[in-house]
Amino acid sequence: MLAVLLLAAGAAVAAQQAAYAVFDAPLVNVSLFVMSRCPDARICETVFEEVFKLDHMMDKVNLNIDYLGHIDKKAPYGVECMHGDLECAGNAHQLCLQAHVPLDKFYPTLSCMNYANFPGAIGTIALTHKCAHTAGIDWWRSGVGACIEGKRAERVSRLAEREAWLTGTEVELPLVLSEEEMDEWADADALEPLAKEAQKRLVQSVRHTIKEGVTKSCTIRIASTLKHSPRECVVDGGVWKGCDDGHSPADFARVIRAEWANLHK
Ligand SMILES: *[C@@H]1O[C@H](CO)[C@@H](O)[C@H](O)[C@H]1NC(C)=O
């Protein structure tokens, strides 16, 4: 009996290792350093939206987006952001998405947040929720909801769902706001609560950006095994700087393909 169990366990471990081997295939590290309500960040993110539409690009990249700010224990979310607390919230929401959903769900959500009347309602839960839903993310099941709104909010919501199911009534859907209503809400700058996990991710990300010595949003870094230093590029005031390899989606794709090929030769 024990032997059978051990055998089964061994098979399970082997299967898991095989699965990890696939994920462990080296990917090209691409880092964007941004601020969620910064127009220059939007330029970088829009270029990468095009990069990721190209053949198999998503499978070759390990994308990390980190945020610029100053650590400030007295700030509502523990960080001071250039475009205000709403931006801090937007950064934190995007970090929760990155942490809990795969790239092919995260990126469409990010693009959706950037798409509206920029910076519009970026940083409001209403917009993040709407965009996540549009990208096919289950708010609670993915872990994104708890990261942003907390476990308590999740329990309340699940209880309401269960209650509705038991009594055969309709679940009361969260109020769906129009784009204009969301923008107005953002303008009012009423701070929404941000759960512990989201705040922790925000502080960690800002610390990482400081440690990396990045001071401009947007900064793009592509880790290189072909060159001695990372390939770095900045968009500052709408102007691209330092992109030795070009800054069109095709240029970034070419660089990523070359780096990927070098990791897999
Ligand atoms: C990518 O980044 C991770 C984490 O920093 C690191 O462990 C890994 O070696 C990097 N891979 C490449 C190919 O640069």
Automatic annotation (TrEMBL):
Subcellular localization(s) per the UniProt record: Secreted
GO CC annotation terms, alphabetical: extracellular region
One MF annotation (Gene Ontology) recorded for this entry: oxidoreductase activity, acting on a sulfur group of donors, disulfide as acceptor
InterPro entries: Interferon-induced_GILT
Signal sequence segment: 1-15
Alphabetic keyword roster: Glycoprotein, Secreted, Signal
Pfam families for the chain: GILT
Family to which the UniProt record says this protein belongs: Belongs to the GILT family.
Protein name: Gamma interferon inducible lysosomal thiol reductase
Species for this entry: Cutaneotrichosporon spelunceum
